[in-house]
Specification:
It is a single chain. The chain has 196 residues and is mainly α. 66% of the residues lie in helices and 0% in strands. The protein has 6 helices and no strands.
Length: 196
């Protein structure tokens, strides 16, 4: 039998301890990899969504415990908080939807994509059901080879600014909804005032 032409040695995909540590050091990975940038935006939107969810839950308790004169003001605040949470969650979902269209440029970019995939379903499905433990296992293996991404929580001022943005959008949408309801019920609202 003759040997085949497949005698080329494949390059090693493992990294040394020093390379692994460098990949984990902040600022020592490809900041231009679109998958890593997507993960950062998605993580931020997810975090803001969780903050707004906790706010909405606190306001819900206040509405339930409010006396009738205070109930209306609390309900408006609660409605805004609910809609703000929806807006933040929608922003995170829109970023998730971009994932199949983003090409990673590095192994850490692939780690970033898997982080989004694994993280997106943590709150929805049972993390012990197929394929989540399997995806987590692949992600762990890949992190051991390529390194992990340094994902820090966004600064408090950034989170607060994002929350205010989503709350303002929610208040605007609820205002439009209320005006549309008034139009539907026959109240005289001039069309030019809708959205103002």
């Amino acid at each position: 039998m003759t040997d085949s032409d497949n005698s080329t040695t494949l390059p090693s995909v493992t990294t040394s301890r020093r390379d692994h540590q460098t990949a984990n050091a902040p600022g020592h990975f490809d900041d231009t990899d679109p998958a890593i940038l997507l993960l950062r935006g998605w993580s931020r939107a997810q975090h803001v969504s969780h903050v707004l969810c906790r706010l909405q839950q606190r306001l819900e308790r206040r509405v339930l415990n409010a006396a009738s004169p205070d109930a209306m003001d609390k309900k408006v605040g609660y409605s805004i908080a609910c809609q703000a949470e929806v807006e933040a969650t929608t922003a995170a979902l829109k970023l998730q939807d971009k994932l199949p269209h983003i090409q990673a440029r590095s192994l850490l970019g692939i780690v970033a994509k898997l982080e989004i995939i694994a993280g997106a379903d943590r709150d929805i499905d049972d993390p012990t059901d197929f394929p989540w433990p399997h995806i987590s296992s692949v992600l762990d293996d890949l992190k051991k080879i390529a390194g992990s991404l340094p994902l820090e929580r966004p600064e408090r001022s950034v989170v607060q600014a994002d929350c205010r943005q989503y709350q303002a959008r929610a208040a605007y949408l609820i205002g439009l909804e209320n005006q549309a309801t008034n139009l539907h019920l026959g109240s005289p609202v001039h069309p030019s005032r809708i959205g103002s």
